[in-house]
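Hello,

I think I submitted the magnesium ion job twice by accident. Can you confirm which output corresponds to this input? Input:
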Amino acid sequence: MSEKKIKKITELTCSEVQNLINSVDIVLFDIDGALLVNSLPLPGSTELIAKLRKLNKDIRFVTNNTLYSIETIKDNLRFFNAEHKDIFTPIPSLLEYIKLTNYTQDIYVIGSSTVTNILRQNGLKIIEFKDIHPSLHIEETGVALKELLLKALEIFQVADALLRNIKSIKLISGISDDMTPLARNLMVIGTKYYLDGLERWSGMKAIPMAKPAHELGDILKSVLNITDSQRVLMVGDNVETDIGFGVNSGFKTFLVLTGATTKEQVEIWKYSESLKPDYLAQDLEDLYEKIKEM
Ligand SMILES: [Mg+2]
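Support: Only one job matched these inputs. Its output is below.
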């Protein structure tokens, strides 16, 4: 198989980049590391989004973050005038899945209070570890979460017991990071570790609801009436989640080097060949510079 050539935005002419923009109707943005860093807009991001909107592009935001409510995410995106309907997370994708499969039984949730609250508001019957062990009540702040992590094994043992003992049970996953930032300077073992364990112990495969799974892309396509996936551009900083999501959903893909991926990682490509993005830029300013005269 011949190697795919990643197109660098700075090496393309303005008209080539403008043709790219003309070839899409919808632009999906990852948030952290692509648009924002430490809650502040990255270079060129606000100008780019304003420009794309002027060009009648439909701008949406796709994040795996389920720690924050949509209201909080919307507030974090205030620089970009995001509205509630513009934000997609694994939670709406899970709700859609539950609706499609007519699921009405109890759901054991290992997740943030944002997740459990939204599921409850949608009339679903939720069981959490603290319902089984009422003495466990820990506020979801950075330091207290550290205590919660010490309980993680017990929390996952309950899940394992359920998976082994209930016939026709399903395992559904959200974000599956290897490491997760809980707070500034507090990186902890991510959900991938526990999910891998659950899959191995139970012999079940999780149904994923977060990027890079195409399931989230399917929801987007149905909500946004997307008939031609190639008229969608996915922009993000993470090869495995953002570019993987774009590839799995059939979208055009655009990698920026303002977050999870370094220039060296692109130069010495260590991911699978299929995860190579169509386009690459150091930051969104590079893209804005090429289209600002459009
Ligand atoms: Mg990101």
